[in-house]
Write a structure and sequence with these properties.
Layout (H helix, E strand, L loop, with lengths): L1 H41 L2 H18 L2 H4 L15 H10 L4 E4 L8 E7 L5 E16 L3 E13 L4 E7 L4 E4 L2 E2 L5 E3 L5 E8 L5 E4 L7 E5 L2 E5 L1 E8 L3 E4 L2 E2 L3 E3 L3 E8 L5 E4 L5 E4 L8 E8 L3 E4 L2 E2 L5 E4 L17 E8 L6 E4 L14 E3 L11 H4 L4 H12 L6 H4 L7 H11 L9 E20 L2 E14 L4 E13 L9 E7 L7
Parallel strand pairs: 5-12, 20-26
Antiparallel strand pairs: 1-2, 2-3, 3-4, 5-9, 6-7, 6-10, 8-9, 11-12, 13-17, 14-15, 14-18, 16-17, 18-19, 20-24, 21-22, 21-25, 23-24, 27-28, 28-29, 29-30
Helix pairs in contact: 2-4
Length: 512
């Protein structure tokens, strides 16, 4: 029994001794790990930077900062009136300086830290380099000693590039930038360049209506954040921006360019003269049917069944009827219809004075109906009163000295330009130089009278063509062709008879 008690006692003593040894070893291990952690922490490069910042802070407070450190004298800039040395001293003395790794400088054996002020301005740069080779303890603790190579206070000015619309104003540190700092870009914006800035500038960009614009910064590049739309539209469309009318600027022709720049997403509403509206947001094309139609003012044009309003048309005198208009007052004028409808498949229909549809290809966006209206046969009641073919042939005979002036003058208005021209030719010496010839039998062939057009109740035109066949005194045949448009008027001043007042030579075919 006593032997058994002695064995238990010895075991207990051995167990306690083992626990004591293990405890001692554990304490030693903990102490070793703590020492490794302390060494690991103290070996970090940040600690060296923090220590150097603390030194510079103390030096700035006691006035010895510039005895230990130097920097190049800052280049004066009209956009940075701040005393740079004074700013650095006060920023370090405040004790609020921070640090960060300078982008792109970290390697295995070197790194540069930037010391920055509370406002983010660089006050100094600290260059570190590795000392010795790196080592690892307990597998997970890498060690690398570092040393401070140099400390330099900020002396590197920066150049800032600012992009803003041409009609926006730009201020740097409260000073307005002038045109000498600006270059116009291809998109019309201005690029401002301001150099020799040591501190982060305050850049304020203001819209024409006095509102401060938001900016997007990337390094030393500053861009204005705004909405920019450019719309070139037919002049008959109206554009409202945030409830206000956009006047735009005229473009040669019948278009208006609307340049829209706002700081907030604008509401752009486009309306036409036919009850349609469209909200434009820059993502889709404006649905549009547009065309300029030139016609006489007795033609009517409708768009989707709605007659083109007078505000979308301009009326001028037709130069073709300039001579005719001297004798009759009801000559139609030229009317230009400027059509623009917010519908990419709108139906345009033109009708003549009798309500007949005039066929035209409106997809070309420009249609001239003054020369596309095909005439008809000469009405019997007018043909019974006047014979344009006979008049044309008599005129031709006068030009070749084969008839007298009286044979033509009876068709003309005395004192008119055409009458005077015929008289001057018939009585001038020039007519005596006409080549000697005689007329064949029959003298006229290929005769036609086509394309009758009722210009007004007292005026019409008709196309006359024929060949006058002659033989010269040397035996050669000569064919003198006429292809002209004749204009006749019938007024009380003409004795209510049809008189010829204008002849227009047709250079192509009789359908012109």
């Amino acid at each position: 029994m006593e032997k058994q008690k002695k064995k238990i006692s010895k075991f207990r003593i051995g167990y306690i001794a083992l626990l004591a040894v293990l405890l001692i070893l554990a304490v030693i291990a903990v102490i070793y790990v703590i020492s490794l952690l302390n060494r690991f922490e103290s070996s970090q490069p940040e600690r060296l930077v923090e220590a150097r910042i603390a030194e510079m802070t103390a030096d700035a407070k006691n006035g010895t900062l510039w005895d230990k450190y130097t920097m190049e004298e800052p280049v004066a800039s009209r956009y940075e009136p701040t005393d740079i040395k004074k700013y650095i001293t006060e920023a370090l003395a405040s004790g609020k300086a921070q640090y960060k790794i300078k982008q792109g400088t970290y390697t295995e054996d070197s790194v540069t830290y930037s010391v920055v002020s509370e406002e983010g301005n660089i006050l100094a740069e600290v260059d570190l380099s590795a000392v010795g080779k790196p080592e690892t303890k307990l597998v997970i603790f890498p060690f690398q000693d570092w040393k401070v190579n140099s400390v330099r206070l900020n002396s590197e000015p920066k150049t800032y590039t600012i992009y803003a619309p041409a009609d926006f104003s730009v201020r740097v540190n409260g000073i307005a930038m002038g045109p000498r700092e600006a270059v116009r870009e291809e998109d019309g914006t201005l690029k401002y360049t301001v150099s020799d800035l040591y501190l982060t500038p305050e850049i304020v960009i203001t819209s024409p209506d006095g509102k401060e614009a938001q900016t997007k910064k990337s390094g030393t590049t500053v861009k204005t954040v705004f909405y920019d739309y450019s719309l070139t539209l037919p002049s008959t469309l109206s554009v409202m921006v945030n409830g206000k009318n956009s006047a735009g600027s005229d473009v040669p022709g019948v278009s208006v360019k609307h340049t829209i720049r706002t700081l907030e997403d604008p509401e752009i509403i486009i309306t036409d003269l036919y009850g349609n509206s469209f909200r434009y947001d820059g993502t889709v094309t404006v649905p549009l049917t547009y065309c300029t139609i030139t016609a006489s003012n007795d033609i009517t044009v409708t768009v989707d069944g709605i007659q083109v309003p007078e505000s979308a048309a301009t009326t001028t005198d037709n130069p073709e009827y300039q001579t005719v208009a001297e004798y009759v007052s009801d000559i139609p004028r030229t009317k230009v219809f400027n059509i623009a409808v917010l519908n990419d498949s709108a139906e345009i229909v033109s009708r003549d004075r009798n309500g007949n549809i005039i066929e035209a290809d409106y997809s070309t966006h420009s249609v001239n109906l003054t020369s596309s209206i095909t005439g008809s046969e000469m009405p019997a009641e007018i043909a019974a009163q006047v014979d344009p073919l006979q008049i044309g042939e008599d005129w031709s005979l006068l030009m070749s000295a084969d008839t007298e002036f009286w044979a033509v003058s009876r068709y003309l208005i005395e004192g008119s330009d055409l009458y005077n021209a015929a008289y001057q030719w018939a009585t001038s010496i020039d007519i005596t130089f006409t080549s000697i010839h005689y007329l064949k039998t029959p003298p006229f062939t290929n005769e036609s009278v086509t394309n009758f057009r009722r210009i007004s109740d007292s005026c019409f035109s008709v196309d006359v063509s024929f060949d006058k066949n002659m033989v010269l005194d040397d035996g050669r045949d000569l064919v003198d062709s006429m292809n002209s448009r004749f204009y006749f008027v019938n007024t009380p001043e003409t004795g209510n008879t049809w008189k010829l007042v204008q002849i227009k030579e047709l250079l192509t075919d009789a359908g012109n």
